User: What shape does this take?
Amino acid sequence: MNDMLQTAQNTIIKTGKAMGLSQEIIDRLVAPNAVHEFTIEVKMDTGKKRLFSAFRIQHNNNLGPYKGGIRFHQNVSRDEVQALATLMSIKCAVAGLPYGGGKGGIIFNPKEVSEGELARISKAFAKAITPIIGPEVDVPAPDVNTNGQIMKWMTDEYIKNQSSKFKSKYKKTQLSATFTGKMIKEGGTLGRTEATGRGGVAITEALLAKLKKNPSEMKVAVQGFGNVGYYYAKIANEQKMTVVAVSDSKGGITQLQAQSSKFKAERLDIEKIIQCKKEKGEVAGCYCVGGVCDIRQGRKITNEELLELPVDILVPAALENVINKDNMTKIQAKIIIEMANGPVSEEAYNYLTKKGVLIVPDVLANSGGVAVSYLEWYQNMKGQTWTEEKVNKKLHVMMKDAFEEIWKTYIKRKSSLKQAAFETAIGRMIQKINSKS
Assistant: This one.
């Protein structure tokens, strides 16, 4: 069993016991409802056929249809997919969505196939899962190495292979609601690209309000400059926080000195940095402030150094377990916002929480993406198209409401925010179990 699956299951078991749940209920919350394993056969450009191992794991549908992404990666495994499906059940319940959790994956490196082969692999997988998905059954989305184009291939294949009886039950827009994360012209929603980062900032603002802290006095460091990290940094600055350090996989930049928390670093120009990164291929040479990029005004840092900076808010938005037993004693931030999945190891989480560090767990912090996926699904099911402003407003309300519920539990139980999030989620899930019994 991999670490992520072990941690997810341990947290459910620990929370369930603390809530006084029976072993039978805990077992039902831990075990997936269904594990689907496929071998799909695809004709490659050479004319030869190749077999691919694939999974769709449906963890829990107490609250509604299974929901979760499909990833294409050479390291995909059944345990990894099951862990992610489990966490999706928790994440959807935390966000107050009428969804359960699912996840899918195919074992292969998409960088090693042509576009035509990628399309055929995507369609073969969609055909394989057609009998077990649907707009009110299981709603997949993009994940690692998948995108709107892949969702289009899958949606087209799904609709083509769906039974005539099923087609007569739903309109075409409703059938296309089976997949979210689609391109705008294919029924996708405005606001989806920025949703995870925007949701994370909304959660951060709600936390700062509870702590009676002024956002403009907060120094922020963001590790990871992909979609999530970039939009978090950009929107955090727009909301008057001061992003003083960012990094990508090759390193980062800051003006902040490692040991001087009193040093007033300047707010980075995030949009200028992304332009510079596109030209140079990395963030490390792009110290940009006020529309000007000059590396002599800042300094290059490693990803490890970024995590240990004297900032108020640390945002790991890249990989799992980057904060661990090796560096946990060097973390200076008093607030950590988990924008990546599992960026703080279990040991580090326990150590930092005891030291008084407030860690907003990934199942809450990065739930903005699935929240807007729900808004896409809702628009498709109702035959509506909303403005980006409307989507953003609804997202902000959903994130604030989700945070308020978890904060109440956190204060009441005097536990960690992670424990409070899992307790809130499990409470919602077992309420449905009991109502079905």
About this structure: The mean pLDDT is 94. Residues 195-365 form a domain with the Rossmann fold fold (CATH 3.40.50.720). The longest helix spans residues 388-413. The first strand starts at residue 34 and ends at 43.
